Input
Amino acid sequence: MPSLFLLDFYFPARLRRTPAPRSSRPNTAKRKKVWIEMIIGLPKEIKNNEFRVGLTPSAARAFIRAGHTVLVEPGAGLGAGFEDLEYVDAGAQLEKQTEQLWAKSNLIVKVKEPMPSEYPFFHKGLILYTYLHLAVSPSLTQALLHSGVNAVAYETISDQAGDLPCLTPMSEIAGRMAVQEGAKYLEKTYQGRGVLLSGVPGVERGRVTILGGGSVGTNACRLAIGMGAHVTVLDINSRRLAYLDSIFPRQITTLYATRDNIQHALAQADLVIGAALLPGRSTPKLVEREDLALMKPGAVIVDVSVDQGGCAETSHPTTHDDPIFYVDGIVHYCVSNMPGAVARTATQALVNATLPYGLKLADRGLENACLSDPGLMTGLNCYAGQCTCPGVAEALRLEYAAPETLLA
Ligand SMILES: NC(=O)c1ccc[n+]([C@@H]2O[C@H](COP(=O)([O-])OP(=O)(O)OC[C@H]3O[C@@H](n4cnc5c(N)ncnc54)[C@H](O)[C@@H]3O)[C@@H](O)[C@H]2O)c1
Output
């Protein structure tokens, strides 16, 4: 047992919690002794057609085994096929009152950014661990800063290789879905071009242009090649283009993303997939309004990057309920939570990536977890009322406070 001095050194007083009374703890899982006992809240997602959930029952069990308490909103996992009973069997407790669940929790684990109706639940010192995309959400950013929530965004956590480990699994899913959704909206029923991406013997294949060759782009490539389409990928990262060329030899065309190359590729395309990202920042606008006139009538833009603002100037976020709109005869599909539609696969893939960081936050407390892991530190977007993500600060013209300095 550490001395009180050591406890104070490692964990400031505000991070230490009074343990929940023994009688209120479920005893189905074996608990470890921990220095900090956190209450982890798992609310039901309320974004349109969002069926994912922040923790699977087995992830809830991992938190409980680490000595924490997990509160689950009834029905939170149903959309992903996880019954309340599975969480209870894992040792979690059900909390029917959403407001109470947020109020009692030190750490809220979610999937999508909170909706405005959830802003009143924010409270000082709460750790919010979820996708946030703050660069395009001034109102959410203000709500987080004013309430003093410490917000860790999945999409800006980085690893030693500089990759985005908590974004990648969803990008893999969205990239694959982008081709399947694009193929559907190319159908005449949706005022698409009426082109079958694979073509048929004696008839040309469809053409797919992918803007950005990262995780979304690579997975879109994989599916589009599988369907038999002509595929062109544009990126500003030459190493990435070389990598794609090596894994898909003679199956794709890679082009450096100059304005001329983009316009030329747009003019050829039946399906355009927006997949560019500057981490934490708003998406560069690669398809300008006037470029739509270069495109073939009925061509489709699936702008996966719409969650950060979108590659096309004409994009705005849509929902699974009402996924498409038309501008100048071009079909735009801009659903900002595409993986929500394949909730079971997506929840499992997401939790595989987020659980290790979530456990670190719970076991060590936010400050020590971030100080011990620079990649997790890059996930910290808001801390004690300050904006700690350079991309968000730049996009929203806020003052940036370096998290290393604040936390130390
Ligand atoms: N809509 C959804 O449901 C959904 C799901 C998952 C991911 N996304 C979003 O998709 C986007 C892409 O994610 P990712 O994981 O593939 O990112 P990534 O970082 O793996 O790849 C982004 C690529 O864009 C390239 N890029 C940057 N600027 C460019 C430019 N000017 N021109 C061309 N390429 C450029 C980068 O070099 C990089 O290769 C992100 O905005 C992400 O949030 C959306």
